[in-house]
Amino acid sequence: MSETSAASPAAPETNPLLVAWQTPHQTPPFAEITPEHFMPAFERAFIDHAAEVAAITHDPAVPDFDNTITALERSGKLLTKVSAVFYDLVSAHSNPSILEIDKELSLRMARHWNPIMMNAVLFGRIVMLHEKRKELDLTGEQMRLLERTYTRFHRAGAGLSDDAKARMAEINERLAHLGTSFSHHLLADEQEWLLELGEGDRAGLSDTFIASAKAAAEERGMAGKAILTLSRSFVEPFLKASERRDLREKVFKAFTARGDNGNANDNNAVIVEILALREEAAKLLGFPTYAAYRLEDTMAKTPEAVRGLLERVWKPARARALADRDQLQAMITAEGGNFALAPWDWRYYAEKLRQAKANFDDSAIKPYLVLDHMIEAAFDCATRLFGITFSERKDIPVWHPDVRVWEVRDRDGRHQALFYGDYFARPSKRSGAWMSSLRDQQKLDGEVAPLIFNICNFSKGADGQPSLLSPDDARTLFHEFGHALHGMLSNVMFPSLAGTSVFTDFVELPSQLYEHWQERPEVLQRFARHYQTGEPLPEDLLKRFIAARKFNQGFATVEFISSALIDLEFHTQPASASRDVRTFEQAELGKIGMPEEIAMRHRPQQFGHIFSGDYYAAGYYSYMWSEVMDADAFGAFEEAGDIFDSATAKRLHDDIYSTGGSVDPEAAYVAFRGREPEPDALLRRRGLLDTAEAA
Ligand SMILES: [Zn+2]
């Protein structure tokens, strides 16, 4: 391995990040890695990578695909390896030393990448190849890689004047720093807050909820107590169930104030600076706005196309939410409540209304949604669709004792991937749920099997009880596992095209599509079993559960689209318009007629999707763009009359889950479905089609 050959023979390398891993499947030896290993490893990785790139630019041979594009794909192996381990820890299991390194590293990383992405000689070689790409006799995947590489360098500013490049480099460095600050602030605000639930504060809360609150207390060295944290998987069920209106208000306000408390963790100034710098960068690159810049390289292509989709769904969703609001208010009044529905009341009364109308509430189904059984269900669906099988491995090093690892084998029993599942909330973990990799699939120099992980924030069962999921949690589990499949089933040549390396507005298709199987009776009947009695989910409860899925969709859609629209406005309007973030937020919500009783899913100050980095910046709409496809895609199985239909599953595997970024996403979708997605499928899935026709 190249990273070991640079070590001096006189001093054997002791940094575990710099030697070949002797673990099973060459997995990271987490127990041996300590924070002080990272900076020296990164320094070495930067030097190696820079030398590899210099070798490409100094190559006297005429540029060709192999000596330029393939050589770039081969470069930076050590950097990729060390980064994967480090960023896994930053998000899933950090500590003050790791966070300190993260702060320092964001700047170092920008300083390393800037001169590569803006290297004029390197870009000259890429441009030359790109111009004569038709004559190069490339495979389809090679052609896609050349186009993606050209686009990546071009969009990073490789073709700009020296002055513009210098400014661009400064902007990138500053943005890297600001993105890191944003997420550190948010984590700190979440860690600093907790609410102790005394005996008198528990009215309405289920036993399983209290058990989780006790487990959370134990995690923080407060054994015997019960606490609420600002994790979404605590806050939302609490707001649904707590009969204490005063506590609901307190929790709601703390949750929506994260990053907006005027303390050292305040994100308002960070946002203002990020937006100004993004706008400046977009203009340097010749775009009128940052949104125009970002969206050029997506399926949507333009801000107008994004706005078109969001507004089409907004109208019926808002109409539905307003009608629901009136019903909730009527319920309060009928109960003798002398107050107007407030945002901290919505979930509580919506849940009551659901009980009244559908005779169903989350806590009725929770005892049937055992985490381990739902993991089994997610695996079983993958086995039936794609033939892959799972067996747990206890010998793979992990970053925290709660993490579990499974070996994934293909239908012929060959090793395909390792899957790491890290399911429980803890103080060292960021909120939310995500998928990422410790190593991506590729076969440039022999087959490399991927190491894929899922991180969730479910609450643990206390006192040896199993962890029980809410319906939302169960859906999240399948969602993230859908992303994991995208990584594990990847079958491409080049690492930069592997798995989820696709457009942001395509990347949620494999994940959201997978959610469909979770809510099917065929799956629930087998895997939703009572945690104490082992009884399967009663038929009647199952029916009510499925019917209840369309309940409160006005609310869910409104909280999502308002966030997506504000993201778009932040990046479409001049940055000077949002110098006061709160005022901007209020004004924009006013313009779209946001119901006062509903809050955005992510207020700007906690909107990590768009401010912790740029992945979802001007791109939060992506979930809905992908939903147009996933709602339509599942129809292929329904039309086949079998949700595991093997011919349809084979196309899904061959055209969507295994192709990564090696094909154009529109072409991939059409290859799978035989046509473009039908847009009304999304409204139908959300139960909003009748409102759309009436609106
Ligand atoms: Zn996702």
Short note summarizing the structure:
The protein has 29 helices and 7 strands. With 695 residues, the chain is mostly helical.
Q: How many helical stretches?
A: 29
> What would you report as the Rg, rounded to the nearest angstrom?
25 Å
Beta content comes to 5-15%
| Low-confidence residue ranges | 1-7
Can you describe what's shown?
The chain has helices at 2-5, 38-57, 65-74, 77-92, 96-117, 120-131, 140-156, 162-192, 207-219, 232-241, 245-256, 268-284, 290-296, 303-334, 343-358, 362-365, 371-386, 471-488, 504-518, 521-527, 539-548, 553-572, 581-591, 608-611, 622-640, 646-657, 665-673, 680-685, 689-694, and strands at residues 195-196, 227-228, 389-393, 404-409, 415-424, 434-439, 451-458. The chain is mostly helical. The chain has a five-stranded mixed β-sheet. A hairpin with a 5-residue loop joins strand 4 (404-409) and strand 5. Zinc ion (ZN) is lined by residues 479, 483, 508, 511.
